[in-house]
Structures are given as structure tokens and as C-alpha cells.
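Bug report (template v2)

What were you trying to do?
Predict the complex of my protein with nicotinamide-adenine-dinucleotide.

What happened?
Run completed; filing so the output is reviewed.

Input:
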Amino acid sequence: MSSSESRLDGRIALVTGAGGGIGRACVRALAATGAKVHAVDIDGAAVESVAAEYGGWAHTTDLADPDAVDALPAEIDILVNNAGFQHVAPLPEFPPEVFTRVQQVMVTAPFLLIRKVLPHMYERGHGRIVNVSSVHGLRASPFKSAYVAAKHALEGLSKVAALEGAAHGVTSNCVNPGYVDTPLVRDQIRDQAAVHGLPESEVVGQVLLQRAAIKRLIGPDEVADVVRWLAGDHARHVTGVSLPLDGGWTAA
Ligand code: NAD
């Protein structure tokens, strides 16, 4: 961070899915830049350890529960909608209840949180919404119907928030990682190996990164650095965009 404009001192952030992976890295990056962070996750032990390490507040919350989402604070300057999970299955076998839960956690909860924090952001004339989407918000892959549908919905929600928030100093953007080195991906390597009938060792190169030019998983800290950049005052003119961090996947 080169200019004082890039600091986030005095800002209050809320990060969902903060217990691990990209969310935890976002808490670390935002706190290191001066923000105080509400860390939200269904995994209470994980989120307590994040708050113990980086300061701020821990909230043990199941984002599929609208009442639990409603209990979260509204006085938020930087909202990072990050929580998510994957389920891999062919469409005829995809469990409807899992499809519904994916939409609740990855679409309805971001909607409820945006709806909740916007009045405070409008009052302050400033706000940053960063939605952790995916390359799967822009492209589809087989066997990921719920996840691809949810991420495409998040893209639309983010753009509407950008249009409505613009007059109030609020920006809304998506970041769109390719495969990140997190537990979510390590689980997928196992699941994809079963679906494609490949050994796990071949899944990263042949399946996950088949369409990417850069053949390595991105680190969570690299994603968090971009989230932090979008949260800064300098990014006030960047809104309604979806920023691929995909090693060239969508360029091909
Ligand atoms: P992760 O599994 O490491 O972290 C996800 C976090 O969300 C976990 O801590 C989990 O407990 C939490 N969570 C899940 N369901 C929840 C619920 N109902 N209520 C509250 N918290 C819940 O995964 P990650 O890779 O860090 O993923 C974070 C985000 O990044 C997700 O939205 C994911 O879709 C997106 N993403 C990940 C990758 C990747 O390759 N890992 C790529 C693109 C996008």
C-alpha cells in the first residue's frame, strides 16, 4: 500500500466464511490495513481463532438461517460476501436440498447482508461491497449446477448493488478466482477424481487447470490482496465489475 488513501483505519468490515481459506486471508489483509473486522462463519472454533489472531469480533452464524443473518451488525463499511461451499454431482443425481442450501448461503445471505448494511453505507456516503464470486460466475463446468447457478446469481446481485449504490458512494464488485489452494479445492480434487475416474494426482493439471494458462493454484493471500485493494478509497471509480484472477482461463 503506497498512499495513505489506501489505509482502512476507522473502517468496520464484515467477512463471511472467515473461518478458513480466502475469508481468513481477507480478515488478515483488512486488519493489517487498519480495519476492524467482524468475522462470520458456521465453524465457531475457526472464527474464534481468527478473531483471537487478528482482533475484531467473532460470530458463529449459519448463513442459511435468515434470522441468524439478521442478528449480524448493520454498521458495516466494507462487506465481503465470501462464504460458500461446493457439491459435485451430475444433474439427474443432484440432491434438491443441497441445491437449495447452496442458494441460501451463496445468494440469499449476500442479498440479506447487502440489504442490511446499505442504509448505514448510504448515511455515511461511503461503502464497499466485495463479492467473492468465481470463474464459475462467468463460465460453467459440468457437475456443478448449484454452484454455477449461485455464482451467476451473485454476479447479477453485485451489479444491481453497484447501480443503486453509486449515488451514495457505495461500490460493489466481484472477484473471480480460478482454483485457489484451500480446503474447498482439496475436497473437490477428491470428488472430481471420483466423477472423472482419474487418480487425484492428475486432477489438478488435467481437470481443474485444463483451461488456465498459468498451471498453478492461486494462494488465498493473493485473492485477499485484491479484495483489500477494492476496499480502499482509491478504488472509488471501480464498480459493477468482475475481476478474474484465473490465470488466463477466461482469456482462452
Ligand atoms: P473454504 O471451505 O476454505 O472456506 C469457506 C468458509 O465458508 C468455511 O470456513 C465454511 O465454514 C464457511 N461456510 C460454509 N457454509 C457456511 C454457512 N452456512 N454459514 C457460514 N459459513 C459457512 O473455501 P474457500 O476456498 O476459502 O472459499 C471461499 C469463497 O471463495 C467461496 O465463496 C468460494 O466459492 C470462492 N471461491 C473459491 C475458489 C477455490 O478454488 N477455493 C475458487 C473460486 C471461488
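What did the reviewer find?
The first strand starts at residue 12 and ends at 16. The two ends are 31 Å apart (CA to CA).
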